[in-house]
Write a structure and sequence with these properties.
By secondary structure, the protein is mainly alpha-helical. The protein is built from 13 helices and 6 strands. The strands form 2 sheets. A 3-stranded antiparallel sheet has the order 2-1-3. Strands 5-4-6 form a 3-stranded antiparallel sheet, with helices on one face. The longest helix has 35 residues. The chain is flat and about 80 Å long. The model has no long low-confidence stretch (mean pLDDT 83).
Length: 357
């Protein structure tokens, strides 16, 4: 609410302060993943990266509760986290029922559920960390998840490169949109924060376009083989090419590279079965992460042309296949390398027997 009031002040007070505070309440609900009903449509494509802001606050609250209540056992963690989450969910419910703008209505049940679930997960993790109840478990989890984290890092870096290339190639249209809006300094900062909220979704859109399935927008699917038939006057959507750009499909190398990194980070194993199981588990974690990534990148921004937005679900299969292909390539190359350069084992047993005591 403070942030929206600051923007309202620098906007020369064109609306009532009550409106600015209601906008603040709506922004707070959006940061918890609450969908909204706007007129005849719904708004479900949310800036999920904003979830970082309440998570930081909830983490601090969880650590404070663990310190003040001397939490030391799993049962006390569960009780304290449930109490905090219940109170938090009630606040979200009241904000959804009485704090939204006119013409815009948050979904009360979803608001309470999302806020309460986020509060429970983050605060309980903070309490467990503060009470040092999970040091050994975290090390074991990191050992299992390290290959998947490496693969996801490659996917993210590759998506960032694709998005950066799109921004460079389409900077003129984006600059023209900003010139039309004329947000000013404070409004520009608010616009940047809003765009950062959609940054994870933007990366998945760029990745889906670069690996082939494309993205659905304004009633049609934009792929590297088919561009946008009509320009869309919305910041960010102007980056979609107007014509076919088959050279973008070089992005298929990104999931393959992620698979190679996953297999390399998994390392060697004493038995082939362990090597297969380690890589299969890591691929499974990557698939789960890709599913969640895709889920936060699709939705609606209202009715009509914006009734369905986001990458095709086929991108999940393409990325998974690319990662698996990268794993197979890495294994085949390593097998060929070991065949060409066998490791010689020197037996020093007989020489050791001849050495006098």
């Amino acid at each position: 609410m403070v942030s929206t009031l600051v923007v309202w002040i620098f906007a020369a007070g064109e609306s009532a302060s009550d409106t600015a505070m209601r906008v603040g309440a709506d922004v707070w609900l959006v940061a918890h993943g609450t969908p909204f009903t706007v007129g005849d449509g719904t708004w479900t494509l949310l800036p999920w990266a904003w979830i970082v802001f309440p998570s930081v606050t909830l983490w601090a609250a969880g650590r404070w509760v663990a310190h003040r209540a001397a939490v030391a056992y799993p049962k006390s963690v569960a009780v304290a986290a449930l109490c905090l989450a219940g109170t938090y969910a009630v606040v979200a419910l009241l904000a959804a029922l009485f704090g939204t703008l006119s013409g815009v209505s948050a979904m009360p049940a979803r608001a309470a559920l999302h806020a309460g679930l986020l509060a429970f997960l983050v605060s309980s993790a903070a309490m467990i960390h503060r009470a040092r109840l999970s040091e050994g478990v975290l090390k074991r989890v990191w050992q299992l998840a390290r290959p998947a984290v490496g693969a996801l890092a490659v996917l993210t870096i590759g998506a960032c490169l694709v998005l950066a290339t799109a921004l460079v190639l389409g900077h003129s249209s984006v600059a023209q949109s900003l010139a039309d809006v004329q947000p000013g300094l404070v409004g520009g900062i608010a616009l940047l924060i809003g765009w950062l909220g959609y940054f994870p979704a933007s990366l998945m859109w760029a990745l889906s376009y670069a690996v082939g399935p494309g993205v659905e927008v304004a009633g049609f699917t934009v792929t590297a083989a088919a561009g946008v038939p009509e320009p869309i006057d919305m910041i960010g959507l102007q980056l979609l090419p107007r014509t076919a750009q088959p050279w973008w499909l070089v992005g298929l190398l990104i999931p393959v590279a992620a698979g190679v990194v996953l297999s390399r980070v998994s390392g060697q194993a004493d038995h082939w079965r362990s090597a297969v199981l380690n890589r299969a588990a890591a691929v499974g974690l990557v698939v789960i992460a890709i599913d969640l990534w895709w889920a936060i990148s699709v939705g609606t921004l209202g009715a009509g042309r914006l009734g369905a937005l986001g990458p095709s679900p086929l991108v999940i299969a393409v990325l998974t296949a690319g990662v698996i292909l990268g794993v197979l390539i890495e294994r085949a190359v390593m097998w060929w390398w070991h065949r060409r350069h066998p490791v010689e084992v020197i037996d020093l047993t007989d020489e050791a027997r001849d050495v006098p005591a």
